[in-house]
Description:
Elements: H1 3-15, E1 30-32, H2 39-48, E2 52-55, E3 73-78, H3 81-91, E4 97-100, E5 114-120, H4 127-133, E6 134-145, H5 151-158, H6 169-178, E7 182-195, H7 198-207, H8 221-234, E8 237-249
Parallel strand pairs: 2-3, 2-5, 3-4, 5-6
Antiparallel strand pairs: 1-7, 6-8, 7-8
Amino acid sequence: MADTDFxxxxxxxxxxxxxxxxxxxxxxxxxxxxxxxxxxGLLADRMTRADAALDIDTGGGEVLAxxxxxxxxxxxxxxxxxxxxxxxxxxxxxxxxxVAVADRPALPFRxxxxxxxxxxxxxxxRWPEVARVLRPGGRFLSQQIGAGTVRELAEALVGPRPLRxxxxxxxxxxTAEAAGLRVVDLRTATLRTVFHDVAAVVYFLRKVIxxxxxxxxxxxxxxxxxxxxxxxxxxPFVAYARRFLxxxxxxx
Length: 252
């Protein structure tokens, strides 16, 4: 394939807006298996039984927006400024309040404010804060990024990388228990993730910034070129997303 094809694909992936947490642009260009526990269904079920709920790191609110019936009080937090307005528009129909927060440990809510706290793919789980804002008997539900997720893609660009201890499910469970929560469910899954062209890779790395934290197209153009040539010669690039589900309650 000619250099112009590579340049066009990279430029295409670099031009797509990355606000929010909607990956529909990747349809037909990349795919990821769904987790077997069905987080959206679990979220909807827990929300129907909640009185006051908090969604931490809501992104653009896309997942939370799928619940069929919101609780009396619904609050979401988001730390990345471009996502805050996206989330406010997305969640307006649910009557949710979206709170812009700084990337710091403390949550801006009083003690025991919520009987349900949820979070899908939190950046840095704040276990003591989750325990603090939960009411006695309250519940925390979260799907999180597991250690080594899509490491195959990261290593294609930067070489071998150490695994993060704070992304291990065992670490999460131990830290939750240390914060005063009781873990009632812990499940793991490895999900096949397929990239069909380098435009999808560029878009993904711009959006999921923790995969290669210093990623820019200019900085990694030679590595992207090698990856493009590999896809052309061998077919789609396959990586594996690691996920875990954790659910915990605050003893009451």
